[in-house]
Amino acid sequence: MEMATMELFQYMIGNTDFSALAQHNIVLLRDPDGKVTPMPFDFDFSGLVDAEYAGPPPALPLNNNRQRLYRGFCHQGLDWDALFRKFRDKRMQVFELIESVPGLSERSRRIALKYMKDFYKILDSPKKRQKKIVGACRMPAP
Fold first, then answer.
1. What is the pLDDT of residues 67-76, one digit of tens each?
2. Residue 128, Cβ neighbours under 10 Å: how many?
3. Cα–Cα distance between 40 and 96 in angstroms, integer?
């Protein structure tokens, strides 16, 4: 479920500038027991950061950096409800984190909070979850 968690996190922040297969903007960390955890980094092209110089990759059907596109894979046996619950359970922590970022202007804080609230509206709607996430997952490469 670690890879699916990372993929949903990327969707949450509106980041399409990553590849699990190519390990682009992702490092795979292995603990002493051999468990692998994907660690994403480099979020300047995400909709949450919305850097002025960033734009969506031309190959993707996006008009701007703030549009979300689920780029995760269809993981066999994934308990989608458990994955969504994991994120919903952290909702207030996500909002509190944004509220606590030092040096963030009030305007940027409001925009970031709205962006995250829009994500949670998707998670709260079974129809939207199905259409935008579950139904949009990509088949693994052969």
1. 999 999 999 9
2. 12
3. 21
The β-bridge partners of 53 are: none
Whether 17 contacts 25, CB under 8 Å: yes
For the stretch 42-87, pLDDT in tens is: 999 999 999 999 988 899 999 999 999 999 999 999 999 999 999 9
Residue 38 structure tokens: 């994907």
The two structure tokens encoding residue 56: 């969506």
90, 8 contact by CB (below 8 A): no
Q: CA 6 to CA 26: how far, in whole Å?
A: 9
Q: Which two structure tokens, joined as six digits, stand for 60?
A: 């993707």
Q: What tokens appear for 91 in the block?
A: 């909702």
3 state SS of 50: coil
**SS3 of residue 12 by DSSP:** helix
Domain assignments of the chain as residue spans, ordered by start:
2-136
